[in-house]
Amino acid sequence: MKQTAYKALFLIAMLLSAPALWAQNGGGGAGFGSILTYSLIAAAVLIFFFLLIQVSNSLLAIEAKQANISDSGESSPSSNGLFNSLFRPKLPSYAEHEPVHVLKRGHDIALEGEAKAEIDESVQATTYAVQPFNFIGISPIPKLLVEEGNEVKAGDPIFFDKSMPDMKWVAPVSGEVIAIERGAKRAITAVTILADKEQQYRQLEAFDLENAKREDLVSYLMDTGAWTLFRQRPFNTVVNPNEVPRDIFISTFDTAPLAPDLNLVVEGREAAFQKGLDALRHLTSGSVYLGLDAREGHQPHAAFAEAEGVEKRWFHGKHPAGNVGVQIHHIKPVSLNSKVWTLGVQEVITLGKIFLEQRFDAERVVALTGAELKAPKYVRTKIGARISELLKDNLANDHVRYISGDVLSGERKLEDQFLNFYDDQITVVEEGDDYQLFGWLLPSFNTPSVSNTFPSALIPDMKFKAETNTHGERRAFVVTGNYEAVTPMDVYPQELMKSILIGDFEKMEGLGLPELVEEDVALCEFVCVSKQPVQQILRQGLDNMREQS
Question: Which pLDDT belongs to residue 197?
Fold first, then answer.
């Protein structure tokens, strides 16, 4: 703001001095000189009023922040003044009369292999797993309630964390427990279940949402397994049943590469989604917020746009506009002393079905994506399905990498491993273990990049074939400004990463660490010329801060 003011004042001074300089040089007639003088004075007055409006809005924003009134977005008309409202992008008809947060920073990566917008019901998995390492904040060796060979129903408890014995993790399917898989230091990596052909469910007791106390609802959700659906910000951990969240946030759209269309996901399950929202309202002292998509051609499903009992906020922009962390930042930022909960759309549906059907239904609509698939598609399965079974007879190439999630923030998997608990996407990309001589000097038409030096920049609608080659090794951590250009949040990612590496906790907190999780900085890793493992560094900082807090 200071730099803008200085530049504008300098421009005003130059405009006001121009007539005098013109006269000294003997230029033009008297009439022309008068017109020029008045024109320059008018321009100076306009610039002055622009500066006045900007300063006033900035002061109002500071005062609102000090009063804990944080309801404005990066480019909301109510917060950034007349100038931004005049130059904001054209909004679709369904969002033009809504208060929209227009995010100017970010980057969309267009990849080949988008899933066809219909669900293939013929694809079925037979083996599923619950993986304790999917849940940040619990012991790596939880207390098991089952053994190999035991029969379980869907919704039966299978383990709990020793520090929170009332919180149960439950089976996603009915069947036989065929393996208790362990990793380093005997940590449990997966409890694997061979599913029955005909699914059986643990029958839950009906619960009266409207008349029950909050503590009774908490106990009910912990016993049914629904408590594991929630995640807490900061740190993205399992939630503490003894704490009440300030607010709860759900993003109803995903802007990551090849991400599933959540409008398709919620189709036919609208009642369960609304019931889940009703339950969430009884768990927070604040509000339940829905982030809605204001981009052209992405009209939200009626289940989202017409949801009842929630606060709706619209967002327009490139990825990561669909990240719930970005939306939280622009609605009500979190801090170490101000905690919120988050859920995905499918977690809300599972929560709703507990109250509508009295059972834990772990159904998931999963997008199978990537250019290495013969037929990218949506399938209907359960939480933790085996990846090889979902992709059976669908690989176009056998030299591939499997990713649970998207290419930016997903986790690498082996073929016989399982989909992560919170993921609803599998991405298959070419394994990039080849090396090109002088590759950085040669023109490339298949290299997604934020740089305009590649020929592909001339074709803005071009889609790329993803592969895993990083085209370079880890280098000196240099300042480029690329991180800030793709992060639509008021944080300084590069300075934050360096403060994590040196262990400066005060700077880490001041630079916004509590507001971030890995997916929020995934684009920073994509644009990093130093090839730094940005997400890994961020998790290191989050874990260290969580241990100290």
Answer: 94
Burial class (CB in 10 A: 0-12, 13-18, 19+), 394: middle
Positions of the chain with pLDDT under 70: 1-33, 49-51, 53-88, 437-444, 457
Query: What is the DSSP code (8-state) at residue 126?
Result: S
DSSP β-ladder status, 100-102 and 311-316: parallel
Task: Give the 3-state secondary structure of residue 341.
Answer: strand
Q: Where are the beta strands (DSSP E) in 254-348?
A: 288-293, 311-316, 340-343
Return the SS3 of 161. Answer: strand
CA angle 60, 63, 67 (to 5 degrees): 135
- The DSSP annotation for 169-212 comes to EE-SS-EEEEEEEE-GGG-EEEEEEEEPSS--BPPPPP--TTTS
State how far the Cα of 326 lies from the Cα of 106, in Å rounded to an integer.
11
Q: Is the dihedral of CA 385, 388, 394, 400 positive or negative?
A: positive
> How many whole angstroms separate alpha carbon 283 and alpha carbon 286?
9
pLDDT at site 67:
47
Q: What is the DSSP string of 424-445?
A: -EEEEEE------TTTTTS--S
Give pLDDT, residue 80.
Answer: 46
Which uninterrupted H or E stretch holds 381? strand 377-382
Q: In this predicted structure, what is the pLDDT of residue 237? A: 97
Please tell me the pTM assigned to this model: 0.86
Q: Are strands 363-369 and 425-430 parallel, antiparallel or unpaired?
A: parallel
